[in-house]
Amino acid sequence: MLSSLIKEHQAKQSAKRTTQELKRKECISAANDLTQALVDHLNVGVAQAYLNQKKLDAEAKLLHQGAINFSKQTQQWVALVEHFSSALKEIGDVENWARSIENDMKIITNTLERAYETTRDQPGSS
């Protein structure tokens, strides 16, 4: 009887050990699956962040190139406006010079007309 109880007890313990071993393996497998799922989930986020960073870098390069082109174009416009302003100043200078010449010519004409009238009105002139 005692030996049968011991055998029965040992059989139950063996069955429990087997059950516990199965549960331990299932638990390890579930933990591995969970870890893998978490890593996969994080990797998806990291991969998305990496793709977004690549897109941002490409957009930043395009923006930088656009800014360089805009700067060059702006410099060309500034040079053109400065040239135009200089040409306008020259036109203004020429116009001022022409007015000065015109005024001088009027003075000379008026002086010559007066001189002619004075010499014509004098007795003894032919």
From TrEMBL:
GO terms for cellular component: BLOC-1 complex. GO terms for biological process: endosomal transport. Residues 1-11 have a biased composition (Basic and acidic residues). Residues 1-21 are annotated as: Disordered. Belongs to the BLOC1S1 family. This is Biogenesis of lysosome-related organelles complex 1 subunit 1. It comes from Pieris macdunnoughi.
